[in-house]
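Training component of the fellowship. As part of building independent skills, the fellow (R.M.) carried out the full modelling exercise for a liganded target. The chosen ligand was zinc ion. The inputs are recorded below so that the supervisory panel can assess the work.
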Amino acid sequence: MNKPKIVVEYSDKKNSSGKVIDGTIHLNISSRLSPLEKEKHIAKLTENLTGKISWAQRYQFGNSEGIVKTDEELFRLANAINKAYYNFTFQNIEFHKQNSTWGTCSLKTKQIFISHRLIGAPMELLWYVVAHELCHLGEPSHNQRFWSIVSRACPNYDECRKRLKAFGLQ
Ligand SMILES: [Zn+2]
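Fellow's submitted model of the complex:
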């Protein structure tokens, strides 16, 4: 699982708290603590929230399994990845019947198509393919720069590519 984005705020109160909004962890840490204690609170809350939130809750999928089945859910996922890691401009993203590729991205129309074979796929794989296609908006070629951009949202992209090959055989 990819690490969620974390926003930390400090306020003058006794307790620290945290919640998840749109896939981002928002922490409210007590400013009365020592620097070391603050770090401890941040680490503990982050660990708890990361463990607790499922994909479904993070991205408001219409199902509890945390898998993407519809174009709307796909759009929410792409939007969340894009907002957290990139900020590229894309028009739309939807599932499309395509057997030869996992995804395509048109630089002209800024439209992304994801293969229908990934409907209901393991989230990590879909996450990787969506991030991959988003990154083409910033770098058209599969060069070193491209992979370094991909790794921002998907540090384990190498493993995902291998798993995707295996997934394609099913
Ligand atoms: Zn590509």
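The panel noted the following from the submitted structure. The chain has two domains: 5-53, 71-168. The chain is about 45% helix and 20% strand.
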